[in-house]
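Design request, tokens follow.
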């Protein structure tokens, strides 16, 4: 690559000749003498094909200089040759009449002007050829603003999310796993998770902790039959494990005993902790909707309003058992898509969002409509923990935003 670039770079002290200089260059005597004996009329000049061809090739090489020969640049050279053809014929005719007469350059030709026009044409051609490539690179590069932030891991963030997509199936459960349970059902699961969302809010825990807690509960219930009286014990223990994995400051076991109204002892919580870890084979590293949500919000160039509304819709989906049929990445993408539609009041899903989420608006529409329905009914019924949480000023009163009801229309289609 370095050798190629050196070949294209003009030598120091030897500037590349401009178009004006090349068109007005004085021809060698031997070229003029080749025309002796030709009829003294411009229309009757007998051309030497080999001489003309070699002259054009030399001129093209000089004009090209260090530039690559593209189709557009070749076309511009051809146009210039056609425009200069008549002047070249006239000069040749004069040389035939008086072989000793030197061709004097036309002082009226502005070399700088010709060179500036050529440079402008070159820049325009190059920019046109690079438009598609630069747009694609711009669409893909959403991490440039974080290039100086070591916590953003911009050097390998794409590899991370490639790994998440390849392994998100490991965090999923069968959407009908509750059929194997004898004493609990999906309504009891919804009550438990709605209560844990309130506990999570009171302890002021990180968002990652909540999503990992719900994931641990579902994966454990899929593999282990649990009696009704121990369901809450599974919930508080799952949150205890998620805190150990995600939090800097972990709640003590006594806090969990108090929050569960002393329904369980410290020993029972520790025993359940061992049972859950053994059942899940100590696998706490799974991609939850949270990791995808952060990436898709970044692709959407989100503000605080979009972020809070997206998380509100996603937490509403955590409570609903029927949403287990969707992969974590699709849940996160649908939450961002639905929130954008609710804010803008039209179907909004950009090419950048589609590129990074790997989902089109049409693919998200089914899940998005379900989220709109949850949003519409969030303040009603008995399970209102998420609605109360996002009705506070701390969470921007996101629950009070108008739902995107137009997505429920049967004629709605994916966004562009």
């Amino acid at each position: 690559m370095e050798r190629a670039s050196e070949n294209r770079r003009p030598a120091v002290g030897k500037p590349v000749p401009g178009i004006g200089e090349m068109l007005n260059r004085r021809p060698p005597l031997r070229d003029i003498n080749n025309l002796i004996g030709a009829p003294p009329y411009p229309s009757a000049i007998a051309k030497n094909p080999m001489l003309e061809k070699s002259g054009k090739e030399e001129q093209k090489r000089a004009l090209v200089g260090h530039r690559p020969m593209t189709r557009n640049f070749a076309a511009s050279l051809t146009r210039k040759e056609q425009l200069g053809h008549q002047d070249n014929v006239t000069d040749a005719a004069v040389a035939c009449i008086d072989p000793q007469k030197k061709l004097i350059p036309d002082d009226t030709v502005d070399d700088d002007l010709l060179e500036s026009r050529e440079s402008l044409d070159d820049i325009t051609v190059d920019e046109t050829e690079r438009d598609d490539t630069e747009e694609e690179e711009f669409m893909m590069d959403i991490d440039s603003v974080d290039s100086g932030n070591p916590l953003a891991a911009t050097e390998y963030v794409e590899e991370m999310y490639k790994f998440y997509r390849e392994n998100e199936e490991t965090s999923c459960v069968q959407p009908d796993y509750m059929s194997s349970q004898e004493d609990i059902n999906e309504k009891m699961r919804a009550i438990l998770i709605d209560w844990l969302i309130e506990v999570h809010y009171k302890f002021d825990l990180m968002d990652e902790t909540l999503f990992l807690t719900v994931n641990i509960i579902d994966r454990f219930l899929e593999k282990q039959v649990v009696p009704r009286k121990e369901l809450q014990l599974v919930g508080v223990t799952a949150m205890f494990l998620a805190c150990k994995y995600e939090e800097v400051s972990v709640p003590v076991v006594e806090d969990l005993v108090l929050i569960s109204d002393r329904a369980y002892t410290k020993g029972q919580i520790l025993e359940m902790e061992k049972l859950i870890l053994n059942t899940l084979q100590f696998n706490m590293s799974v991609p939850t909707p949270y990791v995808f949500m952060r990436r898709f919000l970044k692709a959407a160039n989100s503000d605080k309003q979009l972020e809070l509304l997206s998380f509100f819709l996603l937490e509403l989906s955590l409570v609903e058992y029927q949403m287990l049929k969707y992969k974590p990445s699709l849940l996160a993408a649908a939450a961002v898509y639905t929130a954008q539609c609710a804010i803008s009041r039209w179907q909004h899903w950009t090419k950048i969002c589609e590129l990074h989420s790997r989902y089109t608006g049409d693919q998200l529409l089914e899940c998005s409509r379900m989220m709109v329905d949850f949003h519409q009914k969030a303040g009603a019924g008995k399970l209102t923990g998420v609605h109360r949480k996002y009705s506070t000023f701390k969470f921007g009163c996101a629950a009070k935003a108008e739902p995107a009801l137009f997505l429920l229309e049967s004629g709605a289609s994916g966004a562009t």
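Comment from the thread starter after seeing the answer: thanks! DSSP finds 18 helices and no strands in the chain.
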